[in-house]
Design brief:
The complex is a heterotrimer of chains A (387), B (249) and C (376). Chain A is 75% helix and 4% strand. Chain A has 387 residues and is mostly helical. Helix content of chain B is 33%, strand content 25%. Chain B has a six-stranded mixed β-sheet, with helices on both faces. In chain B, helix 4 packs across helix 5 and helix 5 runs parallel beside helix 6.
Chain lengths: 387, 249, 376
């Protein structure tokens, strides 16, 4: 591995971590799409900044572009407040317009600006190691590494300092306000960080990878854990894994590094989406099927309990007709009840056993008082076999 | 009871995301009653109506409208959804919304004609909204919006009316106007079923009541069953708090 | 170039005519379907689908190995549909919300598409040039056959809208109610989503992946401000869209270094801006004017009712009073007194004022109205 290769992977990993932190909060605050808007809308800011500084990695340019990102957020919120259009329409209107202005500005000055719109969208990580920071003629490493490194340090510092405040304002804005923590300050603080990170990363990795780094690892982590700290760690780790393996994928295919990293992020998300132990597609499907039968079982037991005096309502045939179930389901429900000793069948008349009675009684209490978690515990206590 | 049964519900169980909301409901609603469905928040009142109307698929149980499944009896049923369930900024007028009531009898593709327009205007007049017919619906007050919804159901000219909280967020005048229309419907032999929040007005407005809290607690004439016993069973010991709670206007 | 010279050119120059027609048709279909996207609160679905279409285009090229725009359309359509179904799957099957689902699909599909595009560019096949046009659109590559395709699909879409007009309107406004009337809302939902995806895919070649969502939203958002009728809104949106297309093409054709897509989007944005500000019923300008007027009227009414309260205690309602007793009252200014006199509600003699019978009557009505409103 050459030092350029190492540097590329290092830059990509730092971008991944720097994006994972604001990304986690954006996903939790249901504002993931604002990253899409910001990453497109900073284009005119970058172009104007470039006219002034003539250096794509100048801190002033980053500041100007980040400012245009925050302006985007303010503009979107202003349009939302007029109530002339629905909320999401405001986002969808603002960023293509700003992006168009950026594209036109670049095209108009194509001769003086060495800026390629493709590069803004997709970036070119492979070139990042060639733009080096020279200090008193000493090579200090790639500029991108320094930019991302400092943004990451600032983000980390803010995260550690304001972790409690961020947490409260994300999960309960009302409480945060009551405690004297201004949700507005938190909101715009987060937006500023997201803008700065986007701008700082765009030159190296491009807008699309920034969006992917912000949303995909956080969303994937959210499917695996509910704990905010764990979610932050997981998102950062997943981002780094994708960054490194994406680099080697691109190396193999001789294709865009940003594209390859995004593809790996997509594959990781797909795998988690399908196979996550609690919230994955298959386990949700399995649990839903299980719960479907168990709810049917509860219904069935309750029905029996309601009609202890009426044998015709408890006739096996009744299940097939009156309750309106398909035969297969009715049979599996009856079998499950039998296996768990909840019912006994005497000449096609079903009646509740002692255990069935107490189970039903408890279940009703919990459902009426809305204690759903208790029902799961209760199922564990009563069921020998699950549905 | 010798009265005809308008709605017959047997062993109805409904779950949202496999969390039970309604449990093993058996309910017969006789023809020609003006019935309130009452119960605490989350008791499944709206769900009950929606599953009668086949909007929500139940896990188990059956619903019959005059002895047949809902699918075959659509023409006999009208529905007033909760006011908050639609986007009132939708570009349409009060008249247009009421016209939607005629779409069911028209079926697919056919366009409403003069007959339908006349019916819609009549319904608007009944609810006292004729002069507002060309208003955009967002420019109506909460009470007026509710009247437009009621008019849309009246156009359907049904035998059974289901209403989800028609008194929520309406002014006193509209509340009186609506209840008068409902009483007139009952007088004309129609069955009216209303999800209701304000317990204090139950004896004044309704002649039939169903207490619901996930399970059916009781159902019958207001004068027989609207008592402390059933209220306690439905709302818990503190039901008097619920009784004194005015819905916010 | 003069305007009429340009118009002449549109009619004589084959390429320009094709492009102008193409962008006009595209603007119209986007306006029509965008209206539904906006009203169904699916504004950003368009953005996600247009990005999700990119890998489809790349895969279509990998399979056919030629630049065939029909194959590209099909590929884009399939991957756009996969994207939109996966979005739905994520929202219904996991706890991730719609914004995250949209952002995920948008970035992941697009990144995968970019991977494929860069992979294709390295292939020893000279035919791949032009694939990157789908990123920002290249109206100049429109062929007559592409425009025919667009026109036919727009025609079909228009017929379907007419045919199912009442059902679509009802199901967008109140889906539950539509269900109780016996309409299959799921069918209508799929119908309209499919058409939105088709419109997006059609537009990719012209305005590109990134700007497609604005093409869909802007005409509809502008049209919504001018009318309260769905039919007029859709018609207006189609007109705004088509006009943006024609004007945008004209501007970019007559200037150097101006690509068509961004110019069309900016023209559409101008429509939105004008509509937001100047629409008589909803616009911000008239809203502000009405607000000021109401405030002034309120001040006037306050003063008038204050005078009424003083005057009604006297037998003779036109009995004169000193102006200075009004001085401590807040809504009172010299100007408001002047206005009241102009309206002939009060008469002023020196430092004294008195209500006219007309002013007294107006005040009494106001008073009753106010107490009536408080009753409700």
């Amino acid at each position: 591995m050459s030092s350029a290769q190492l540097e590329i992977q290092l830059i990509a990993s730092l971008v991944a971590i720097a994006c994972a932190i604001p990304g986690t909060f954006l996903v939790l605050r249901k504002m993931a799409l604002i990253t899409d808007a910001i990453s497109h809308a900073i284009l005119p800011g970058i172009v104007l900044g470039f006219f002034i500084t003539e250096d794509l990695s100048s801190p002033l340019l980053i500041l100007l572009a980040a400012l245009s990102g925050v302006l985007t957020v303010i503009l979107v919120e202003f349009i939302q407040k007029t109530k002339l259009v629905k909320e999401d329409t405001a986002i969808g209107l603002v960023f293509p317009v700003l992006f168009s202005i950026g594209v036109i500005l670049i095209a108009q000055h194509a001769n003086d600006v060495h800026l390629d719109v493709d590069a803004v969208l997709v970036g070119e990580l492979a070139f990042a190691p060639f733009d080096r920071l020279l200090l008193y003629q000493t090579d200090m490493g790639p500029k991108a590494l320094w930019i991302i490194g400092s943004i990451l340090l600032i983000t980390l510092g803010l995260l550690i300092t304001f972790f409690k405040e961020l947490k409260i304002s994300t999960f309960d804005a009302g409480l945060a306000a009551a405690l004297g923590l201004s949700p507005v300050v938190m909101h715009y603080g987060l937006m500023t960080i997201a803008s700065i990170t986007t701008v700082g990363a765009f030159d190296a990795v491009g807008a699309i990878l920034v969006i992917a780094f912000m949303i995909a690892p956080a969303a994937t982590a959210y499917l695996l854990t509910n704990d905010l700290k764990k979610m932050l760690f997981l998102a950062a780790i997943l981002g780094v894994i994708a960054a490194i393996s994406g680099y080697w994928l691109a190396h193999e295919l001789d294709a865009s590094i940003a594209g390859a990293i995004t593809t790996v992020l997509g594959l990781i998300f797909l795998a988690v989406y399908l196979f996550a132990p609690q919230k994955g597609y298959f386990s949700v499907r399995y649990r839903q099927r299980q719960q479907r039968i168990e709810v049917s079982l509860l219904t069935f037991l309750l029905h029996l309990g309601n009609h202890t005096d009426n044998t015709s309502e408890r006739h096996l045939q009744h299940l097939y007709e009156h309750i309106n179930w398909q035969k297969v389901r009715a049979k599996s429900v009856v079998n499950l009840a039998l296996k768990n000793n909840m019912i006994q069948i005497d000449q096609d008349i079903i009646s509740l056993t002692e255990k069935g009675h107490s189970f039903t009684k408890e279940a009703i209490d919990y459902i009426v008082t809305n204690k759903n978690a208790e029902i799961e515990n209760m199922k564990d206590r009563f069921f020998l076999f699950r549905g | 009871m010798s009265r005809k049964i308008a709605v017959q519900i047997d062993d109805l169980t409904v779950a949202y995301n496999y969390k039970p909301v309604l449990w093993d409901i058996d309910l017969s609603i006789p023809e020609g009653v003006l019935m309130a469905i009452v119960g605490p928040n989350g008791a499944g009142k709206s769900t009950l109506i929606k599953s009668i109307l086949d909007i929500i698929k139940p896990i188990a149980g059956s619903v019959k409208i005059y002895g047949k499944p809902y699918k075959k009896q659509r023409a006999l049923v009208a529905y007033v959804p909760q006011k908050g369930s639609v986007d009132w900024d939708f570009p349409t007028t009060a008249f247009d919304v009421v016209m939607m009531g005629t779409y069911g009898s028209l079926g697919w593709i056919k366009r409403p004609g003069q007959k339908e327009k006349k019916a819609a205007l009549e319904a608007l007049e009944k609810v006292g909204m004729l002069s507002f017919r060309n208003r955009q619906i967002s420019q109506l007050s909460g009470g007026q919006q509710q009247r437009v919804f009621l008019a849309r159901a009246l156009v359907q000219n049904a035998a059974i009316y289901f209403m989800d909280e028609p008194f929520q967020g309406v002014d006193a005048t509209t509340e009186k106007a609506i209840i008068n229309i409902l009483k007139a419907l009952r007088k004309a032999g129609k069955t009216v079923i209303v999800v209701h929040h304000d317990l204090q007005t139950v004896p004044e407005y309704f002649d039939w009541v169903t207490f619901l809290n996930v399970k059916k607690i009781a159902t019958g004439p207001v004068k027989d069953i609207f008592n402390d016993d059933n209220l306690t069973k439905t709302y818990g010991i503190n039901y008097k708090v619920a009784l004194n709670q005015h819905p916010s206007p | 170039m003069r305007l009429y010279e340009y118009i002449e050119l549109v009619f004589t120059d084959y390429t320009l005519r094709t492009i102008t027609l193409g962008t006009a048709v595209l603007g119209a279909i986007c306006g029509m379907l965008g209206s539904f996207a906006v009203l169904r609160k699916q504004s950003l679905l368009g953005d996600a689908i247009s990005h999700a279409a990119l890998p489809g285009i790349a895969i279509a090229f990998l399979i056919t190995e030629t630049k065939n725009s029909n194959a590209f359309l099909l590929g884009a359509l399939i991957s756009g549909l996969i994207g939109s179904f996966w979005i739905r799957g994520i929202i219904t099957k996991t706890k991730l919300k719609s914004d995250t689902a949209l952002g995920l699909i948008l970035s992941l599909f697009f990144g995968f598409g970019m991977l494929l595009l860069t992979y294709i560019q390295k292939m020893p096949n000279a035919n791949q040039a032009g694939l990157e046009n789908y990123l920002f659109g290249q109206a100049a590559t429109l062929l007559a056959s592409d425009v025919w395709m667009m026109a036919i699909i727009t025609g079909i879409c228009f017929c379907v809208l007419l045919l199912f007009w009442k059902e679509l309107k009802l199901s967008v406004f109140d889906a539950d109610y539509a269900k109780t009337l016996g309409f299959n809302t799921q069918f209508l939902d799929i119908l309209i989503t499919a058409f939105i995806v088709i419109a997006i895919v059609l537009g990719l070649q012209t305005v590109g992946v990134v700007l497609m969502s604005a093409m869909l939203l802007a005409p509809a958002a502008a049209a919504r401000q001018w009318t309260n009728s769905l039919a007029i809104m859709i018609t207006l949106a189609a007109i705004f869209g088509a006009t943006s297309g024609v004007v945008g093409t004209a501007i970019s054709a007559t200037h150097e270094h101006l690509s068509t897509g961004p110019v069309i989007v900016l023209i559409a944005a101008v429509f939105v801006g004008i509509s937001f500000i100047a629409s008589p019923s909803r616009g911000l300008l008239f809203r502000e004017i009405r607000f000021r007027k109401n405030r002034n009227d309120l001040q006037l009414h306050k003063t008038l009712s204050f005078m009424y309260n003083i005057a009604k205690d006297h037998e003779d309602i036109t009995h004169p009073h000193a102006i200075k007793i009004l001085n401590n009252f807040q809504g009172f200014t010299k100007r408001s007194l002047q206005k009241l006199e102009d309206k002939n509600y009060v008469s002023i003699q020196g430092t004294m004022w008195s209500l006219t019978p007309e002013g007294y009557q107006t005040a009494a009505n106001l008073y009753n109205q106010l107490s009536h409103i408080n009753d409700e």
